[in-house]
Design goal:
Helix content of chain A: 25-40%
Number of domains of chain A: 2
Number of strands of chain B: 2
Radius of gyration of chain A: 20 Å
Largest interface: A-B, 37 and 35 residues
Strand content of chain A: 15-25%
Largest sheet of chain B: 2 strands, antiparallel
Helix content of chain B: 55-70%
Oligomer: heterodimer
CATH topology of the largest domain in chain A: Rossmann fold
CATH architecture of the largest domain in chain A: 3-Layer(aba) Sandwich
Order of helices and strands of chain A: HEHEHEHEEHEHEHEHEEHEEHH
Radius of gyration of chain B: 21 Å
Shape of chain B: globular
Number of strands of chain A: 12
Strand order of the largest sheet of chain A: 2-1-3-4-5-11
Structural class of chain B: mainly alpha
Strand content of chain B: under 5%
Chain lengths: 334, 335
């Protein structure tokens, strides 16, 4: 198995110019980088799992700049890769641009939305992040002693506000008096990769009394988790299971099963069903992580309450407001 | 805004200003000798990587610090070789160093640690921990009282708050950076070496006529620049963070350069400029969108202010910034 493991920096060009494979899947990571221990790494893990289980091969590339998005899509499509799986909401526009030129290639955008009517060869995979965030918000509210919890977002985009909004609703559901401090790292893609800023934001929130901080910020979140561990407060990881990073300090992780989405897309191969797919709690597309690293932090009572809420959301008894539907949040002002 | 909030913002200012200050002083030495250096970013980055990598392997942060300084000095030497010995274009050499560091760090990190271009997390002695000054309330007091540190400090008196929150509890590199300011001033303005260094940036011919080696002086300046950049990078990776992450300097080298111009290549002004830029960042991080009466200043404005201020200074609206006269020009001995 010759996995492309050395696709870093300058090697990216080599990957693109290397010979064509017939109908192997391809994976394009967003600017956060393949090993962000979070969103993109989840995609990578899904692809690796697929490769190990089926013995198949896949190609991947880490984008280095905005300008490479369309270029990478076209090269993969031209080289005959199918399907071309992409992560990150920013890929939606380039895919809409490229997809009509390669009608036989299936494109998958995870987190992005491409109109299925106009582009029949695109699958948009969306997650109900607000539902998963609601559950970790409940856990945060049950774990806090100061009745103050924090949220650190990466780049200020509707998707991240969706996380924040779901989280705030979960916190308020358990403790209506709790205060939520929400901060965004920045407004450019660089905000996904600035752990120093993440640390300072966490520090500022801790000094305002926050003792549980949810980081939905890619690589920046690592700084948040680090500072939380240094200062002895709880943090909540995102996308991948980050509990192992600081055992005893990471309360839980809001799981977004990007790996499952990538795995399914690669498994389906060229026969991939296109359209729009929403993965929520019912589909196990989102959730919260409990493992040996945080089992002591989550009491049975907490699990019970969260499991009840999860069932209620699946049954439709609790509706978690989705920020992206109307750009407003009942539980939090930005 | 209460008093404690103010103290906390100043505390954050100090942390954010430290890497800027070290890099700014590094640039100051180099540019005062006539070698423009836009490779500060790259040198910080490689120092951040080397310090984290060696601190992890050896388990000692001091070994890491040394490795960071050495790595940064190596890049400095490359810059010196290109721009002093071979009389190349200093800006191009600086840009090349930035690219080299950005690529090299990730590739080496991937080949050594296979964690996707980052170093493993540092713990214990492999990291700089906060320095607790006498009489300050620190983590040990919090542990003894069994209450969070922030709570203890909130209940203390104003003087104790300033002492514990603002002055105490930083890593040793913060104090080193602050002490580097008077040291730089003393070296530049009170020693023979400093006089010659300044002269070589203004009029290298005169220095050469006096029988002093222009090349030697410039190399000395570039080496000092490497040491200070090494400290800045090590501070990012082993004090503020616990490990190296790709591109973790996030443009701080350029802000330091802006601070250098803003401070008109003077040490004490550099301290002021870096603290100001640090304060802007700290305020932007604390208040997303600063509200002044009815007007809300968006966070983007705060982030861009360092550059805007620098342009204003460069354009000569507020006290013109005049760079060292011989800056950027390689010295060619007359025959």
């Amino acid at each position: 198995m010759t996995l492309m493991r050395t696709l870093l920096g300058a090697a990216a060009a080599t990957a693109l110019s290397a010979g064509a494979a017939l109908a192997d899947p391809a994976l394009i990571y967003d600017l956060g980088g393949k090993f962000d221990k979070s969103f993109n790494e989840a995609a990578y893990n899904g692809a690796v799992r697929w490769a190990e289980e089926t013995g198949g091969e896949f190609r991947d590339i880490e984008l280095q700049s905005e300008a490479q998005r369309e270029q990478a899509l076209r090269r993969f499509a031209e080289a005959g890769f199918n399907p071309v799986v992409t992560t990150g909401f920013s890929m939606a526009t380039p895919i809409a641009e490229v997809a009509p030129d390669y009608p036989d290639t299936k494109f998958v955008t995870i987190d992005g939305f491409v109109d299925p009517e106009e582009h029949p060869n695109v699958l948009s995979v969306l997650f109900s992040e607000h539902e998963g965030s609601y559950l970790v918000g409940m856990l945060a509210a049950m774990a806090t002693e100061s009745d103050t919890v924090g949220f650190v977002g990466g780049m200020d985009i509707p998707l991240i506000r969706k996380f924040a909004c779901g989280y705030a609703q979960g916190v308020k559901a358990v403790n209506p008096d709790a205060e939520i401090i929400a901060n965004m790292t920045g407004t450019t893609p660089a905000a996904w990769n600035d752990p120093v800023k993440g640390s300072e934001l966490a520090q500022a929130q801790i000094s305002q009394g926050a003792d549980v901080i949810f980081a939905a910020a890619g690589g920046t979140g690592l700084g948040v988790l680090q500072t939380a561990a240094d200062q002895g407060v709880f943090s909540i990881g995102v996308d991948s299971n980050q509990n192992y990073l600081h055992p005893g300090s990471v309360l839980t992780s809001m799981l977004k099963r990007v790996d499952v989405a990538v795995y399914n897309a690669m498994e389906a191969g060229a026969d991939l069903e296109t359209g729009v797919q929403v993965l929520g709690l019912a589909e196990d597309g989102v959730g919260y992580a409990v493992d040996e690293h945080n089992a002591e932090l989550i009491s049975e009572q907490m699990t019970g309450a969260v499991e009840d809420a999860k069932q209620a959301i699946i049954d439709g008894e609790i509706t978690v407001h989705d920020y992206s539907t109307d750009d407003s949040c009942p539980a939090l002002t930005f | 805004m209460d008093f404690l909030t103010l103290v906390q913002i100043l505390d954050s200012t100090l942390r954010l200003a430290t890497p800027l200050l070290l890099a700014c002083l590094a640039g100051l030495f180099s540019e005062r000798s006539g070698i423009f250096d836009i490779g500060l970013e790259g040198k910080m980055l490689i120092a951040a990587f080397a310090s984290a990598a060696f601190a992890f392997v050896s388990g000692s942060v001091w070994v890491g610090l040394l490795a960071g300084i050495v790595a940064s000095m190596l890049l400095s030497a490359v810059h010196g070789l290109a721009s002093i010995t071979f009389r190349g274009n200093q800006l191009i050499s600086g840009v090349a160093i930035n690219f080299l560091a950005a690529g090299l760090t990730v590739v080496i990190a991937q080949s050594w640690f296979a964690q996707g271009g980052r170093t493993p997390s540092l713990a214990g002695d492999a990291r700089f921990s906060g320095w607790e000054l006498p009489f300050a309330i620190g983590p040990s007091d919090a542990a003894a009282a069994g209450r969070p540190l922030s709570e203890l400090i909130a209940q203390a008196g104003p003087v104790q708050q300033v002492w514990s929150e603002l002055v105490s509890g930083h890593s040793i590199l913060v104090y080193v950076a602050l002490l580097a300011v008077p040291a730089t001033w003393w070296v530049l303005y009170r020693t023979r070496f400093g006089l010659r260094l300044r002269a070589v940036g203004e009029n290298p011919e005169a220095v050469d006529t006096a029988g002093i080696s222009v090349i030697g002086l410039r190399y000395a300046a570039v080496v000092i620049c490497g040491v200070l950049c090494g400290l800045a990078g090590a501070y990012l990776a082993t004090a503020l963070q616990a490990g190296f992450v790709k591109d973790m300097t996030a443009g701080r080298g350029y802000i330091a350069l802006a601070a250098l111009i803003f401070s008109k290549w003077r040490p004490w002004y550099a301290l002021g400029a870096c603290l100001l830029f640090g304060l802007l960042q700290a305020v932007a991080l604390r208040y997303q969108g600063l509200r002044l009466g009815e007007v809300t200043i968006p966070v983007q404005v705060m982030d861009s202010l360092p550059y805007v201020l620098t342009v204003i200074i460069l354009a000569g609206f507020v006290g013109r910034a005049i760079p060292p006269k011989a800056g950027g020009a390689p010295y060619v001995k007359e025959r």
